[in-house]
Amino acid sequence: MDIALFLDFDGTLAEIAPRPDAVQVAPGLVDTLERLRERLGGALAIVTGRPVSVIDDFLAPARLDAAGLHGVERRVDGRLSGGRAEDHPDLRRQVEYLQAESAALANVLIEDKGASVAVHWRLANSEDAGRAETLVKAAADALGSPYRLQLGKAVGEIVPAQATKAHAIRAFLEQAPYAGRRPVFFGDDRTDEIAFASVNEDGGIAVRVGDGDTVAGRRLPDPSAVRALLLDWAEGGTIDPAALPPA
Questions:
Q1: How confident is the model at residue 107 (pLDDT cuts 50, 70, 90)?
Q2: Mean pLDDT of the chain
Q3: DSSP state at residue 179
Q4: Which one-letter DSSP state was computed for residue 221?
Q5: What is the pLDDT of residue 163?
Q6: Which of 10, 33, 71, 142 has the fewest beta carbons closer than 10 A?
Q7: CATH topology assigned to domain 3-83+163-243
Q8: How does strand 79-81 pair with strand 3-7?
Q9: Three-class secondary structure of residue 153 per DSSP
Q10: pLDDT at 115
């Protein structure tokens, strides 16, 4: 099967950590991804809410094709476009607002990504978590239609309205080596459901990692299972995502 493989990072390739900077990359993962990319003729990309530069740090020395910030920035064959913080002055003002208003909330983290911002409350108590969610909703309301709020696992992220993983995947599919291949996307969160639906519409295969309602047709239990599957594919196993367990 000629597939174009798209992989989320947090919760898919790597286990989610209490803080975004505490994520651990499993030994051998980078080698697996590079070998599988070669087997797929280059048609492998990371599609993530993280900045591409952060993914590069986690997956060094590899520099894979990637869509960062939910598609605000995209790198193909070493050429990166999009994602400049200076293009988003209104968002920058809301980042300052979020940082100031959350200062008194214990264990609430503001992750400034330049062209987007995420508010994390995984470690916060229930009261502060509720306040953090209210803050990010207020910031999104103040920005209006040019931006949108997407809620995930103990996180709310404000991104440019046109930026979705679905758009990012479709953009990859318009050029070599992805064009003409069947898209396959692995993701784990509510923020991945838009891309799952898009991949389904395009005749591809969507794979949900972990529990939860989903429009994906296939499911794996956790990142460990994803890594084991990718290693098998990298080592010459049959690449047949349609044979994965149903969701």
A1: very high
A2: 94
A3: T
A4: S
A5: 84
A6: 142
A7: Rossmann fold (3.40.50)
A8: unpaired
A9: coil
A10: 87
List helix spans (H) across the chain: 29-39, 52-58, 89-101, 126-143, 165-172, 193-201, 223-234
Q: Locate the domains of the chain by residue range.
A: 3-83+163-243, 85-160
Q: What is the pLDDT of residue 28?
A: 97
Per-residue model confidence as pLDDT tens digits over 174-209: 999 999 999 999 999 888 999 999 999 999 999 999
Amino acid at 234: A
- Looking at residues 151-158, what average pLDDT do you find? 90
Q: Which architecture characterizes domain 85-160 according to CATH?
A: 2-Layer Sandwich (3.30)
Q: What CA–CA distance (Å, rounded) separates 172 from 44?
A: 10
String of b and e for 69-81 (b: at least 16 CB within 10 Å)? Answer: bbbbbbbbeeeee
- Give the pLDDT confidence score for residue 1 in this predicted structure: 62
DSSP single-letter state for residue 244: S
Distances (CA, A) of 116 to 3, 46, 122: 30, 18, 19
Q: How many CA atoms lie within 13 A of 108 on its CB side?
A: 24
Tens of pLDDT, residues 95-104: 999 999 999 9
Residue 56: active-site member: no
Q: How far is CA 28 from CA 4, 32, 37, 105, in A?
A: 22, 6, 14, 38
